[in-house]
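FYI - complex with NAP, inputs then prediction.
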Amino acid sequence: MPVLGSSGLDVFPLALGTNTFRWTASTAESHRILDAFVERGGNFLDTADVYSVWAPGNSGGESESVIGEWLASRGNRERVIIATKVSGHPAFPGLTADNITAGAERSLKRLRTDHLDVYYAHVDDPATPLEETVAAFDRLVQRGLVRHVALSNYTADRVQEWVDVAHDLGAAPPVSLQPHYNLLARTGFERDLRPVAERNDLGVLPYSGLASGFLTGKYRSAADAAGTARGALLGDYLTGAGFAVVRELEAVASELEAEPATVALAWLRSRPTVVAPIASVSAVDQLDALLASASLELTPAQDERLTTASDSFAAALT
Ligand SMILES: NC(=O)c1ccc[n+]([C@@H]2O[C@H](COP(=O)([O-])OP(=O)(O)OC[C@H]3O[C@@H](n4cnc5c(N)ncnc54)[C@H](OP(=O)(O)O)[C@@H]3O)[C@@H](O)[C@H]2O)c1
């Protein structure tokens, strides 16, 4: 299995996103998804304190609680790597030392565990000095509450600044980046962040690997997306160039006797610095297509065709 940056953690090459838990997946379905994921070799769960605050009736922390209930009932904490995040919750924003410490303690309680394997700064907080933020994460590591530090949604400059501050303070360095990266969102990562990841041995776990489900090929028109839970997230994709990427995915998928979702994630998995794409499911029967991506190899020609279709999508956006 690939190793996550300098952490030494072996990660199955498809990480499970869990923002669907108690949003589009009930607690019972979420537990079935978790059971199936680990049964088939998966070991990395991506959650956050904010998941899924946007669902009616929720206040955030639901995903962590669902995972915590599952861990307690299965007694398998050592079987999984748990990554969660702080600073994205609207009621607990920012990366002051107090917010980081309190956030970690709340997450640990909901997850019913004594340590977080990976703790992400979810979104940057330019108003708090990085020295304060980096030192607060380091104190959690020193206390044994957090094993590894990681960053999501940071610019390349700020990632490098964090690495440098951690070095100067002798604090735990980040081991991973979690950027928005998939066939329909490439430039920000490939041009700016990837060189920083390469330079600093940061393992990359791209999020929204399926572009919110668009890359499964299940949306054939804007009308298909209207009224769905993720419809509002699909706006930019429902264009001629977006559907052309799906058509290329379908063509490659039929050559490989695979699903388009599997091909999209296999393409992402094989990009330089990527350790494991993160993707989510709302039902356990969607999981096979994701897990199959961990072992699917595209030919160089298939890879190139997908990249070319993706380039055309990016060009049409500008
Ligand atoms: N760090 C960050 O700021 C950040 C931001 C976003 C996400 N994330 C992480 O990344 C994870 C994944 O991203 P994402 O949830 O945005 O979306 P995604 O993985 O791009 O898309 C997942 C959605 O596609 C649909 N789908 C998946 N497999 C399918 C299949 N086989 N057939 C048909 N439909 C299928 C499901 O939605 P429906 O069934 O509802 O259509 C599923 O929830 C999140 O759970 C979270 O852990 C992190």
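Strands lie at 15-17, 44-46, 81-86, 116-121, 146-152, 174-178, 203-204, 278-280. Residues 17-20, 24, 46, 122, 152-153, 178, 207-213, 216, 218, 229-230, 261, 278-282, 286, 289-290 surround NAP (CB under 6 Å).
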